[in-house]
Structure formats: C-alpha cells, structure tokens
Write a structure and sequence with these properties.
Blueprint (H helix, E strand, L loop, with lengths): L1 E4 L6 E4 L3 E3 L2 E3 L5 H6 L8 E7 L5 E7 L7 E7 L1 E8 L10 E7 L5 E4 L3 E7 L4 E7 L8 E3 L21 H4 L7
Antiparallel strand pairs: 1-2, 2-10, 3-4, 5-12, 6-11, 6-13, 7-10, 7-12, 8-9, 8-11
Length: 177
C-alpha cells in the first residue's frame, strides 16, 4: 500500500499495491502493522456499508464527540463519491480546513481520518456503495454533525442538478466554537 499525507494532519490517502497477472490482480487493503507504524488506528471494531440509490445523495458532515471519536477507513466499493474530511480539532494547525477526494470502485483508493474530524460524501453515480471501518463503537448520544454548506468551512461540493439530503443534515446550526 502507498500512504500519502494530505494537507490535514493525520488524514491519509491510501492506494492498494496491486499484484497483477492474466487473471486480474490481488491487492492488500489493510495491514495493522503498516497502520501502527504510522501511528494510525488499526483496531476497527465496526465495519459499515452505506448504500445510496441516486447520484447527488449527500451524507454528512458527521462525527462523534470525545471521548467517542471514531477514526475511519473509507472506501467506495461500487460507483463513485466525492469524500470530504473536515478538521474539527481545535488544537490543529488546519482547524476548520477540509479536503475532498474522489473515491471510486475503479480507483480503489481509501481515505483514513482520525477521530475528531467530520466526514461526509456526495455520490457521483447512481447505485453507489461505501464501505468503512471505525475504531470505536457507535454511541448515538455522542453523534454530532455540521451542516454540509456551513459558511464557516466553505466546502466546495461538486455541482449537482439535484442534491438529496435528510432533514437532519440540512438543519444543523451554523458552527460555533
């Protein structure tokens, strides 16, 4: 696997190394030893699938409040997403900054984010599926979110003729610290 640091500390773009032959390829997608060597979470206690029927579905921006912050390893297994990570660590030099990465079933890239970062994505294709692993269990009362279009962050989402959101994601209040 190749690990590429992003502008957000601790947020890493990962590409599996492919071993190809006439049959196709084999590619390791996770190795605890390699994650540990880089100080990344390697004990993922829940594995989740998010399926979206329609292009333009936006899910996020979600996180769990301390002490239940979830490190995540995210991969698109069908279709394509524009995946966004927002740094909500007040002590971080990149506090309130974000990155966006296209994850697709074809490129097989993965995105790792530490706890205390908000995460969300917008589907770029119908019938899209995202698989992600988290380092701590889901605790409903610690669930939080920030609005996808909050002016505090100025996230640049790909233009869509129709954006599909649930009310909760649309109605988060403006961010304040």
């Amino acid at each position: 696997m190749s690990f590429a640091e992003t502008k957000l500390a601790g947020v890493v773009l990962i590409e599996p190394r492919r071993f190809a032959d006439e049959r196709g390829f084999f590619a390791p997608s996770f190795a605890a030893k390699e994650f540990n060597a880089r100080g990344m979470a390697s004990n993922f206690v829940e594995h989740n699938i998010s399926y979206s029927k329609h292009r333009g579905t936006l899910r996020g921006m979600h996180y769990q409040a301390a002490p239940h912050g979830q490190a995540k390893l995210v991969r698109c297994t069908r279709g394509a997403v524009y995946d966004v990570v927002l740094d909500l660590r007040a002590e971080s030099p990149t506090f309130k900054e974000w990155i966006g990465v296209e994850l697709t079933a074809e490129n097989r890239k993965m995105l790792y984010l530490p706890g205390d970062c908000a995460h969300g994505f917008q589907t770029l294709a119908d019938e899209t599926e995202v698989f992600y692993m988290v380092s701590t269990v889901y605790v409903p009362e610690s669930g939080r979110g920030v609005r996808w279009d909050d002016p505090s962050f100025k996230i640049e989402w790909p233009p869509m003729e129709q954006r599909i959101l649930i009310d909760r994601d649309r109605q988060y209040p403006d961010f304040t610290l």
